[in-house]
Specification:
The protein is α/β, with parallel strands linked by helices. It has a single domain, classed as Rossmann fold (3-Layer(aba) Sandwich). About 40% of the residues lie in helices and about 30% in strands. It has 3 helices and 4 strands. A 4-stranded parallel beta sheet has the order 3-2-1-4, with helices on both faces. The mean pLDDT is about 95. Pfam families: adh_short (PF00106).
Length: about 90
Protein backbone atom coordinates (compact mmCIF):
# COMPACT_ATOMS: atom_id res chain seq x y z
CA UNK A 1 0.00 0.00 0.00
CA UNK A 2 1.45 3.35 -1.09
CA UNK A 3 0.60 6.28 1.18
CA UNK A 4 1.39 9.89 1.98
CA UNK A 5 1.38 11.12 5.59
CA UNK A 6 0.39 14.71 6.35
CA UNK A 7 0.39 16.32 9.80
CA UNK A 8 -1.49 19.57 10.43
CA UNK A 9 -3.90 18.58 7.66
CA UNK A 10 -7.00 20.41 8.89
CA UNK A 11 -5.98 23.91 7.77
CA UNK A 12 -3.44 26.06 5.99
CA UNK A 13 -0.50 24.48 4.20
CA UNK A 14 -1.29 20.99 5.49
CA UNK A 15 -4.82 21.07 4.11
CA UNK A 16 -3.64 22.39 0.76
CA UNK A 17 -0.92 19.73 0.57
CA UNK A 18 -3.57 17.03 1.03
CA UNK A 19 -5.72 18.52 -1.73
CA UNK A 20 -2.77 18.82 -4.12
CA UNK A 21 -1.37 15.37 -3.33
CA UNK A 22 -4.79 13.90 -4.07
CA UNK A 23 -4.87 15.69 -7.41
CA UNK A 24 -1.30 15.08 -8.63
CA UNK A 25 -0.48 11.70 -7.08
CA UNK A 26 -3.46 9.51 -7.89
CA UNK A 27 -1.28 6.39 -7.72
CA UNK A 28 -1.39 6.59 -3.90
CA UNK A 29 -3.69 4.15 -2.14
CA UNK A 30 -4.36 6.44 0.84
CA UNK A 31 -3.34 9.69 2.48
CA UNK A 32 -2.99 9.43 6.26
CA UNK A 33 -3.95 12.78 7.77
CA UNK A 34 -3.33 14.09 11.30
CA UNK A 35 -4.89 17.07 13.05
CA UNK A 36 -6.71 17.92 16.26
CA UNK A 37 -9.93 18.99 14.51
CA UNK A 38 -11.60 15.82 13.28
CA UNK A 39 -14.58 17.58 11.73
CA UNK A 40 -12.30 19.50 9.38
CA UNK A 41 -10.51 16.30 8.38
CA UNK A 42 -13.86 14.66 7.65
CA UNK A 43 -14.84 17.59 5.40
CA UNK A 44 -11.50 17.27 3.62
CA UNK A 45 -12.48 13.74 2.52
CA UNK A 46 -14.99 15.26 0.10
CA UNK A 47 -12.31 17.43 -1.52
CA UNK A 48 -9.73 14.72 -2.10
CA UNK A 49 -9.53 12.16 -4.90
CA UNK A 50 -7.47 9.73 -2.82
CA UNK A 51 -9.03 7.99 0.21
CA UNK A 52 -8.06 9.49 3.58
CA UNK A 53 -7.31 7.66 6.81
CA UNK A 54 -8.07 10.13 9.60
CA UNK A 55 -6.07 10.30 12.84
CA UNK A 56 -7.62 12.97 15.01
CA UNK A 57 -5.57 14.33 17.85
CA UNK A 58 -2.08 15.50 18.67
CA UNK A 59 0.76 13.10 17.80
CA UNK A 60 2.41 14.10 21.07
CA UNK A 61 -0.43 12.36 22.91
CA UNK A 62 0.32 8.72 23.67
CA UNK A 63 -3.08 7.48 22.51
CA UNK A 64 -2.74 9.03 19.04
CA UNK A 65 0.87 7.90 18.73
CA UNK A 66 -0.10 4.33 19.71
CA UNK A 67 -2.92 4.27 17.17
CA UNK A 68 -0.54 5.46 14.42
CA UNK A 69 2.16 3.01 15.49
CA UNK A 70 -0.35 0.15 15.49
CA UNK A 71 -1.58 1.04 12.00
CA UNK A 72 2.00 1.19 10.72
CA UNK A 73 2.73 -2.27 12.09
CA UNK A 74 -0.53 -3.75 10.84
CA UNK A 75 -0.58 -2.24 7.33
CA UNK A 76 3.20 -1.95 6.75
CA UNK A 77 2.65 0.82 4.17
CA UNK A 78 5.13 2.15 1.65
CA UNK A 79 5.37 5.80 2.74
CA UNK A 80 5.98 7.76 -0.46
CA UNK A 81 5.66 11.23 1.03
CA UNK A 82 5.80 12.82 4.49
CA UNK A 83 4.59 16.38 5.05
CA UNK A 84 5.02 17.88 8.51
CA UNK A 85 2.81 20.95 8.43
CA UNK A 86 1.78 20.98 12.09
Amino acid sequence: MKIAVVTGASSGMGREFVRQIGFFYRNLDEIWVFARRKERLERLRNECRVPLRVFDGDLLKKQVYRQYSSELKEKNPDIRMLVNAA
